[in-house]
Structures are given as C-alpha cells and as structure tokens.
Inverse folding.
C-alpha cells in the first residue's frame, strides 16, 4: 500500500501570512497551482489559501466604479485574513486510502504533509487521482 511521501510534491512553494492578496494572485499565475500553504514568520504552517479563497475575498474589478476598490483590497489585505486556518494535515506515512477518505469526508482539495512541525510536502486531488490510476492499472 502506497504512502503519501511516495506521491507528494516535496518542493512546495509557500507564502507568508503577512503577504498580500496580490502576492498570492501572482503566485497562482506563475506556479499554475490552486493551493498555497501559508507559513508564519517562524516557518510554521498556519493555513492554506486556495484560488477560491482569493475569488471570495476580491470584489469584481469589472463592475463599474469598482476598480479602485479592487486595487485597494488586493494590495492591502493580508493573507492571514482570507486563508483557511488550521488546515487538516497528514504525515508522510499516511496511506493513499486514508488520504482519499480525508478528501471525501472533509471536502478538501489538498493535504499538507507535516512532520515534526515542518512542512514536507503537499498532496492534491490530482496527485491522488494519478496514484489511484496507477494502482488500479496494477
């Protein structure tokens, strides 16, 4: 039975909780990801920010008269205000079955892999789909 350390992305790009929404928007565009682990000043995982969190936190820049509001929001809002706090985490020894159960039961899109307080990696739904497909093909 496979464990998450075998399928996780281990070179995880992160942002800090005191960075701004605009930083996260650039990050998502540059790295083509949908989930960003958020660390505090000490490097401890304190949250996860998703593309959906960003969409919910920002007003439409296309609505009449809203461009200035949009600019102010994305330049001044700390990620700590919009991220999901205390994310569900797993260890590298968590099995694929356990991870799949967490995804289904908790309706989440990623699982940060943490050991000894350190972020080791991240597993997304795509990672689980790929690993499941390999397992099913035998």
């Amino acid at each position: 039975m496979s464990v998450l350390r075998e399928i996780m992305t281990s070179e995880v790009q992160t942002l800090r909780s005191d960075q701004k929404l605009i930083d996260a928007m650039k990050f998502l565009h540059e790295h083509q990801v949908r989930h960003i682990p958020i660390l505090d000043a000490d490097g401890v995982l304190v949250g996860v920010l998703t593309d959906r969190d960003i969409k919910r936190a920002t007003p439409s820049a296309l609505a009449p008269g809203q461009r200035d509001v949009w600019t102010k929001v994305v330049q001044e809002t700390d990620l700590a205000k919009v991220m999901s706090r205390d994310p569900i985490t797993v260890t590298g020894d968590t099995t694929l079955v356990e991870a799949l159960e967490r995804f289904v039961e908790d309706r989440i899109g990623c699982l940060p892999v943490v050991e000894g307080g350190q972020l080791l990696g991240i597993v997304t739904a795509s990672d689980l789909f790929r690993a499941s497909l390999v397992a099913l093909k035998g």
About this structure: The first helix runs from residue 21 to 31. The beta strands are 15-16, 35-39, 45-50, 84-85, 110-115, 118-124. The CA atoms of residues 27 and 68 lie 22 Å apart. Helices lie at 21-31, 51-57, 67-76, 96-106, 125-137.
